[in-house]
Amino acid sequence: MNEHIQPVPLEKAYRLLNHGPTVLVSARHEGVENVMAAAWACALDFAPPKLTVVLDKSTRTRLLVEGSGEFVIQLPTVRQLRLTHEVGNRSLHAEPDKLERAGVSLIRMDGVDAPFVEGCSAWLACRLIPEPHNQQAYDLFIGEVTGAWADARVFRDGHWHFESADPAWRSIHHIAGGHFYTIGEPVSAAGPREEA
Amino acid sequence: MNEHIQPVPLEKAYRLLNHGPTVLVSARHEGVENVMAAAWACALDFAPPKLTVVLDKSTRTRLLVEGSGEFVIQLPTVRQLRLTHEVGNRSLHAEPDKLERAGVSLIRMDGVDAPFVEGCSAWLACRLIPEPHNQQAYDLFIGEVTGAWADARVFRDGHWHFESADPAWRSIHHIAGGHFYTIGEPVSAAGPREEA
């Protein structure tokens, strides 16, 4: 773990996901690790922080989440655009060396069994809240966030700093095919007494 | 309805929401209309298109959605930043003239009873899929998209054109308080054969 990766207080964890970035979902079960891309991840609650993520029945990662009851949601950056596209389009079923081909390096965080993708801007370790009807009918999974971390070069003191960080740190927001938008510039609707 | 508002084919409706914008939720029931802001809305399925949205128990809009079984999810633009912040912070319970104060104008679309907020970039008319456990336990609502429209000045031919449209059309992505980011620039991970 490099020196830039800092814990984020759980009560501010929702801010890592609030702007709707495309994420990577990682999990490990019985010695198998996988990473997939997901545009359909969303905050669900503040305290304890929860989130939703849609995991298609065709994905190996879904089996690992169901088997282990744990997963990590992390935010890839512009620098990881091709990696994100590759893990979203290659299958561990068909390509056992998928992660290597996609250029994914996995790292560990203390107290979490699921693997973390190196080089992301933020990570949310989650415990699956089993909801069999949602999972079967909608491919919809709910996680409680048990730990959060961010790279202090782009998120620190509870705030994103996209506008002052290297542009390669910006989050990416998938539209369709290989097409994404980066996050843009800050705008504020806050009056002077509302500044957070 | 102005000439720029064009229907979006249902199979491409997910693209309106895929990049994770903050949305406005509108509904009407028994003559009462309301609009609220929601950062926690997310695509859920392609065909038929579905989405999730989190509606807190304190909101009047939630009662209208539960009562009518219908709602509209729409994307406010940079031009509507203050409007978005206002409808997200004023309550119809406390201020019967909330919509007027926030500068909201409502328009109608053929075949949909729920009201649409004028000036947005895109609209998704939804039928509530009742899931009482999700609604009670998580404030999580599921809608099936029954119609979609976009302003052709920023979304046409199935694609966003944020980069060539007036910057005032960009989507806004809430972080916390009155702080948002706009959507940024396009980036592509697609090979030449993957162009959509």
Automatic annotation (TrEMBL), chains A, B:
Record-given protein name: Flavin reductase family protein
Highest taxon above the source species: Bacteria
Broad EC category: oxidoreductase
SUPFAM superfamilies in UniProt: FMN-binding split barrel
Presence of keyword Transcription: no
Organism: Massilia consociata
Known cofactor(s): FMN
Homology family: Belongs to the flavoredoxin family.
Sequence ranges assigned to domain Flavin reductase like in this UniProt record: 15-162
EC number per UniProt: 1.5.1.-
Listed Pfam families: Flavin_Reduct
PANTHER family, A to Z: FLAVOREDOXIN, FLAVOREDOXIN-RELATED-RELATED
Keywords, ordered alphabetically: Flavoprotein, Oxidoreductase
InterPro entries, alphabetized: Flavin_Rdtase-like_dom, Flavoredoxin, Split_barrel_FMN-bd
GO molecular function term, any single one: oxidoreductase activity
Kinase recorded as keyword: no
